[in-house]
From TrEMBL:
Protein name: Cytochrome P450
Cofactor section: heme
Residues where heme binds: 474
Pathway assignment: Secondary metabolite biosynthesis
Length: 496
């Protein structure tokens, strides 16, 4: 029996020949466009930021692929060039890394509206279910809609107060679990506590309690620790974090996206499958409860998202939007506090006097007869200074999410073409020797104010990045601050 025509070898070969020809045609057109841009910028007073020599068509992709991880290559390249802003062409895209706070503020203050969009990548498309969320979504009506919901309905001061008891439950469970873990000398590890695991699962517990009103997807554990389901779920969240902006080759040569040359797509899809395995049944059941009028009182973020109505009294959000937004919120919540505490504790153990100062402050403010509460946070300036210093010296990621230019712009006498990806270096902003004295020294007191006034975790002048700022800034600063300080304070106060 002859093969059907659509499976014939000649047709398959013809398809790939057409695909490759189309791909290279597009690349040639793009290369001509970039050549025109560079010639145009050379005629203007403002020129492109300094950058390495480029290959035809592919730009600096060969160097990036030969020098992984990409963030180290970019930082080393900028140091070799002795520049705090650069222009690196990756395939069809100008990437503009910035390591200077002064230049960073030009982008996110003076011209914030111009650089308020996001890049279109394989991973962000998958995670956001076709750009239906907030953080990962390009500037437009969908972003405005979802940002308004986050700001007004989920992360307002009123809702933060409303969810206080849920956060307190998880802070109590944190102490309970670490105590049980440290006393269980017969367990694997003989009573040792893995700080990374504890900190990450505390953050995972808080966001699960806020979103789903539960700590566990399964039966849980009597010692307060995570079960298999929670470990699998949180590990998958961290897989998404790893690949969400991972300099994938297909993000810069889109016609290669179907080939998944670096394997990112497969890993992201598997992580999403695992996450949705736990989320979907809860969301579907909750929607059914509300439709059947069996759910009256709102208990968590999921209830709020489902109950939102538009002007015609129809649901404001689809189930796909709800699920995607929940995943994005979890990505945004779990890493920053846990990473800061893990690094801060390591630094403080190496400098015992710092650890002593933190515990003395906690004893003075809280005493030894009760646990730290959220109401104590304004008085814990040294603990907050330790958190700020961890954000500065040991950021959770090398770069912030890209800020994409929506039009041609001139920034600091440099020409920035429309569509450029501006990436602020969390790593180098906080270690800039022109800003920080002894930048590689962990020194919390540099963040204390002479008048003893309140220390906050945000840094509006972009001397480092704790929470994103500007039009695309983090709407959850209050929640992030609370989680971070409570994680620091509960563990430093309760254990030696």
């Amino acid at each position: 029996m002859s093969k059907p025509p659509f499976l014939s070898l000649s047709n398959i070969q013809g398809f790939w020949l057409l695909a490759i020809t189309t791909c290279f045609t597009i690349m040639i057109i793009k290369a001509l466009r970039f050549n025109l841009i560079e010639k145009y910028s050379n005629k203007q007073k403002a020129q492109l930021p300094p950058g390495p020599r480029q290959w035809p068509l592919v730009g600096n992709l060969p160097e990036m692929l030969a020098n992984k991880p990409a963030h180290k290559w970019i930082h080393n390249l900028m140091k070799e060039m002795n520049t705090q802003i650069a222009c690196i062409r990756l395939g069809n895209t100008y990437v503009i890394p910035v390591t200077c706070p002064t230049i960073a503020t030009l982008f996110l203050r003076e011209q914030d509206a111009t650089f308020a969009s996001r890049s279109l990548t394989m991973c962000t498309d998958l995670v956001s279910s076709g750009y239906s969320t907030t953080i990962l979504v390009p500037f437009g009506d969908q972003w405005k809609k979802m940002k308004k919901i986050l700001t007004n309905d989920l992360l307002s001061p009123h809702k933060h107060l409303w969810l206080h008891d849920k956060r307190s439950e998880e802070a109590d469970n944190l102490v309970f679990y670490v105590y049980n873990k440290s006393k269980d000398v017969n367990a694997a590890g003989g009573g040792l506590v893995n700080i990374r695991s504890v900190a990450r699962h505390y953050c995972g517990n808080v966001i699960r309690k806020i979103v789903f009103n539960t700590r566990y997807f399964g039966k849980g554990r009597t010692d307060g620790g995570p079960g298999f389901e929670e470990v699998e779920h949180l590990d998958s969240i961290f897989v998404l974090l790893k690949y969400v902006y991972a300099f994938s080759i297909s993000d810069y040569i889109p016609c290669l996206s179907g080939l998944d040359l670096d394997g990112h797509q497969k890993k992201v899809k598997e992580a999403l499958r695992i996450i949705k395995k736990y989320h979907d049944p809860i969301i579907q059941d909750r929607v059914k409860q509300q439709n059947d009028a069996r759910k009256v009182d709102e208990e968590d973020w999921l209830d709020i998202l489902i109950s939102l109505k538009d002007t015609t009294n129809n649901s404001s959000l689809t189930s796909e939007e709800i699920n995607a937004q929940i995943i994005e919120l979890m990505i945004a919540t779990v890493d920053n506090p846990s990473n800061a505490f893990e690094w801060a504790l390591a630094e403080m153990i190496n400098q015992p006097k710092l650890l002593q100062q933190a515990t003395e402050e906690l004893d003075n403010v809280v005493g030894k007869e009760r646990l730290v509460q959220e109401s104590d946070i304004p008085k814990l300036n040294y603990v907050k200074a330790c958190a700020r210093e961890a954000f500065r010296l040991h950021p959770m990621a090398p770069f912030n999410p890209p800020h994409v230019s929506m039009r041609d712009a001139t920034v600091g006498n440099y020409f920035i073409p429309k569509g450029s990806h501006v990436i602020l270096s969390r790593q180098e902003l906080g270690r800039n020797k022109n800003v920080w004295n002894k930048p590689y020294k962990f020194k919390p007191k540099r963040h204390l104010k002479g008048d003893g006034s309140n220390v906050v975790l945000t840094e509006p002048n972009l001397k480092f990045i704790s929470f994103s700022t500007g039009r695309r800034g983090c709407p959850g600063v209050m929640l992030g601050t609370t989680m971070t300080v409570m994680l620091f304070a509960r563990l430093l106060h309760s254990f030696t």
